[in-house]
Specification:
The protein is an all-alpha fold and 217 residues long. The chain has 12 helices and no strands. The longest helix is centred in the middle third of the chain and has 18 residues. It is elongated, with a radius of gyration of 18 Å. Bound molecules: iron/sulfur cluster (SF4). Iron/sulfur cluster (SF4) binds next to helix 9.
């Protein structure tokens, strides 16, 4: 089987396994998704959703965040961790959205990366999950781990992993591929204890059954 065929097969099996995979971050519009994604750094989506349930009742527009006293924002996002940086990123990004982008979250990688606190991962999440725009591939902790286990990259730097994946994953799957791997990472290919015996990819994965935690069971 060629590498191209193996990748197609991996995608096909993941699609069957996770037919409705999408981001777990609750949001109703682009600004909510941007804020949620900033908050999700080093934090679980579950915790972010708890925090944003109340946050989004109080802050609805970029103006609301831009005008909010920083101490209020810090308090509101405190339990997501790194709250000072996150509150500052949200406030300054929203200030720039108002000054430079007519109050609208930008819909291109180039413009999103101009926002303070927004790197490629956040930009890719907003572009893919709100605008349906595949300019890159989201590489979070699950995607990083599983693409290495699957032998799709040898890199550990997220931007290099993204470049590797953009060369081999068909573009029509760039958005979906990350979502599927993230769900796979939560349900089966769990960090430090991958459940290879239950994994639909175990015939295609060079790391299947090699993990120490598996051999001990
Ligand atoms: S076979 Fe094991 S290591 Fe490979 S993707 Fe599946 S769970 Fe992860």
């Amino acid at each position: 089987m060629s590498e191209e065929q193996r990748i197609r097969q991996i995608i096909k099996l993941l699609e069957k396994e996770y037919p409705e995979s999408r981001t777990a971050l609750h949001h109703k519009n682009a600004i909510e998704l941007l804020v949620s994604t900033i908050l999700s750094a080093q934090c679980t989506d579950k915790r972010v959703n708890i925090v944003t349930k109340r946050l989004f009742q109080k802050y609805k527009t970029p103006e609301d965040y831009a005008r909010a006293p920083i101490e209020d924002l810090e308090l509101a996002v405190k339990s997501t961790g790194f709250y000072r940086n996150k509150a500052k990123s949200i406030k300054t990004a929203c200030t720039m959205i108002l000054s430079d982008f007519q109050g609208k979250v930008p819909d291109s990688m180039q413009d999103l990366l101009k926002l303070p606190g927004v790197a490629r991962k956040t930009a890719n999440v907003v572009l893919g999950s709100w605008f349906g725009n595949a300019e890159g591939i989201v590489v979070d902790t699950h995607v990083k781990r599983i693409t290495n286990l699957l032998g799709l990259t040898q890199n550990t730097n997220p931007e290099k992993i993204e470049q590797d994946l953009m060369k081999t994953i068909p573009k029509e799957y760039w958005i979906l591929f990350s979502h599927m791997l993230i769900w796979h990472g939560r349900k089966v290919c769990v960090a430090r204890r991958p459940r290879c015996s239950q994994c639909v990819l175990n015939n295609l994965c060079p790391s299947a059954f090699k993990h120490p935690a598996i051999s001990k069971r």
